[in-house]
Specification:
mainly alpha, 13 helices
Length: 285
């Protein structure tokens, strides 16, 4: 019992008792986010340290993941190009981009579930804003994505793919990804801190989403009727607002409408949960 009642726990208890009203909960949550943003250098350092520790003793470091992604894209690209009767020069750049972007999204969703549980020793020992750990998870996955961009660039060079000016349209999508990632991390991080068996369910959902989302198959293979229903898939909308510009196309307006609608719903849900759960997270760990 003496280990459970730490100074951090006692301070959290005082804060929990104080945050009874909606306005007070919102004020404390805003303060947490503000303090976390001011510590962005620390979040960057922790994210980079996570990558170094994960691949310490390895010759290639994170580039092992890049190499495995390149091999998988090459093998699946030729295989599915034959099965789907696609031109390899058209299909392989699509698959490489889709696989790398989806890998980032899937890894981010999975690691969001362990945002607070993996930082349990720090949270129990040092008074830190919870938003810092969400930023740390985002930084770690962005660094892995930056390594895997090599695969996309290499495939595009080989097949002479260049998105042109449309590629700049991916920047708003990437910004939306970053904001959504922080919201998702705060939501799933707190929820999985309370219910530890949620992680396998989330991973199963992402596996199902992988097959129902055009990652290894193209949207055009569904025909006009099938394409019209794709915006109802939130994973497709979020993927397409970045993928389409990098393939030299403009995202459909309905895709952007769907992405913004799902993002607003995510932000509202994440904020509502975080304001209520934030004083309790230290007790759930």
């Amino acid at each position: 019992m003496s280990q459970a009642v730490t100074p951090i726990a006692r301070e959290s208890l005082v804060e929990f008792r104080a945050s009874r009203t909606m306005s007070e909960r919102n004020r404390l949550a805003v303060r947490d986010v503000g303090e976390g943003l001011r510590l962005w250098r620390l979040a960057w350092t922790l994210g980079w340290l996570d990558i170094r520790l994960r691949y310490r003793g390895s010759m290639l470091g994170p580039f092992w993941l890049t190499l495995s992604t390149a091999i998988m894209v090459s093998a699946l690209g030729y295989l599915y190009a034959v099965l789907f009767r696609q031109e390899i020069a058209d299909y392989l750049p699509f698959l490489a981009l889709s696989q790398v972007l989806w890998g980032f999204l899937a890894a981010l969703v999975s690691e969001s579930c362990t945002t607070f549980t993996e930082a349990e020793p720090v949270i129990r020992s040092v008074r830190m804003p919870y938003f810092l750990f969400a930023t740390r998870t985002l930084v770690r996955n962005v660094l892995v994505l930056a390594h895997n961009v090599v695969v996309i660039v290499g495939v595009d060079i080989i097949f002479g793919v260049w998105p042109g000016a449309n590629g700049l349209l991916a920047l708003p999508g990437l910004v939306l990804w970053m904001v959504d990632a922080l919201a998702l991390t705060m939501l799933l991080g707190g929820f999985c801190a309370r219910f530890r068996d949620i992680l396998p369910i989330v991973n199963s959902v992402m596996q199902i989403a992988f097959f129902v989302t055009p990652v290894i198959w193209k949207p055009s293979q569904l025909g006009p009727d099938g394409v019209a229903h794709l915006p109802f898939n939130p994973f497709f909308d979020m993927l397409e607002i970045v993928r389409a510009p990098l393939l030299g196309a403009e995202p459909d307006r309905m895709v952007w409408v769907g992405a913004l609608a799902y993002s607003l719903a995510l932000w509202g849900l994440a904020w509502g949960f975080f304001t209520r759960a934030r004083p309790r997270i230290a007790y759930w760990l």
